[in-house]
Amino acid sequence: MGVNKKLKIIIISDGTGETATAVSRAAMAQFPDKDVFFTRYKNIRSNEQIEAIFNEAAIHHDLIIYTIVSPELRAFTAKLSKEKYVRSIDLLGPTLTIFANYFEQEPSAEPGLLHAVNDDYFNRVAAMEFTLNHDDGRHLKSLHLADVILIGVSRTSKTPLAVYLSQLGMKTCNIPLIKNAPLPKELFEVDQRKIFALTIEPEALMQIRKKRLSRIGADMHSGDYADEKKVLEELEWANQLFRKNKRWPIFNVTNKAIEETAAEIMRLINMREHNIFKQAKRKK
Questions:
Q1: Domain for residue 1, yes or no?
Q2: Any residues with CB less than 8 A from the CB of 89 and at least 6 apart, and which?
Q3: What is the pLDDT of residues 216-272, one digit of tens each?
Q4: What torsion, rounded to 10 degrees, do the Cα atoms 160, 165, 171, 172 define?
Q5: From 65, 108, 206, 243, which residue has the greatest number of CB atoms within 10 Å?
Q6: CATH number at residue 163
């Protein structure tokens, strides 16, 4: 092989090939003087695809690295490597064999599972970032991108509930309601099914607000924040608003864990999606 020839490493995968790429680049860090070109073939599903790649690799003496979970495709790849004298590395096969022996169970042999796990992780990270950026009514211009919009008066668990939902992959906004203040116009420009109203019993809200004032060292007898009459008026105003907008489901958070309210919201979302799916099938 000529010293000036640019070397090529071919990555074959029935998934995304990201695992093989990462391992290859980690190994190449130990050979900094080598100029190597990488080619990746992903979502490989047939013998014909693999054979075409090997035919090309045999001509140019390329190295093939493969991560294939299908035992049939993996066996075919190993067979071609010997027949065509192409150097290859099976990154996944030996590991799957050892794991299968250890667990006394055959692997599922379903391609792309790692990619699906990674996608779920990154979706949750994106949802958490979106939620934190849209806390307390901020950045309403992108409200339409939310999966869930929580509304309620102060201290109805909007922020902790939003954060919890984001950990489930839901991009969540929360908007505080202030008595007699106009609601943001953006709220009525989005799909109203995304909006979930939070309410609470007056006695519970007063206790929560009094504890809040105590923590920050404020005078509990000054202002309207925890005043019984004002709290009653505020909740009645909010509940009337919720009843007026009939498409907003109302969730009473009194003495409820965040997880419980989140489960109720997710259950309703799943029911709606299931009904939409059923209606779409009937139309077909």
A1: no
A2: 63, 64, 65, 66
A3: 877 656 578 888 999 999 999 999 999 999 999 999 999 999 999 999 999 999 998
A4: -40
A5: 65
A6: 3.40.50
User: DSSP readout, 99-149?
Assistant: HHHHHTS-----TTHHHHHHHHHHHHHHHHHHHHHTGGG--GGGGGG-SEE
Residue 98: both structure tokens together = 């050892």
Q: What's this model's pTM, rounded to 2 decimal places? A: 0.60
C-beta of residue 64 within 8 angstroms of C-beta of residue 10 = yes
**Cβ neighbours, 10 Å, residue 181:** 8
Classify 256 in phi/psi space as left (phi over 0), alpha (psi -120 to 50) or beta: beta
For 7-62, the pLDDT digits (tens) are 899 999 988 888 888 888 888 889 988 889 999 999 999 999 999 999 999 999 99
Residue 183, pLDDT > 90, answer yes
Largest CA distance in the chain: 88
Q: Which residue in this structure is represented by tokens 């020839």? A: 5
Q: What residues contact residue 218 under an 8 Å CB cut-off, 6+ apart? A: none
**Who has greater pLDDT, 93 or 265?**
265
Same domain, 132 and 74: no
How many angstroms separate the CA atoms of 123 and 3, rounded? 45
Tell which of 111, 137, 172 closes a domain: 111
- Written as six digits, the tokens of 116 are 């699906």
Using pLDDT thresholds of 50, 70 and 90, give the confidence band for residue 115: low
CA atoms in the 13 A half-sphere facing the CB of 106: 6
Q: What is the pLDDT of residue 114?
A: 56
Closest CA to 59 of 15, 3, 5, 13: 5
Residues 89 and 187 in one domain: no
State the amino acid at position 259 in one-letter form: E
Helices 202-215 and 228-244, interaxial angle, to 10°?
120
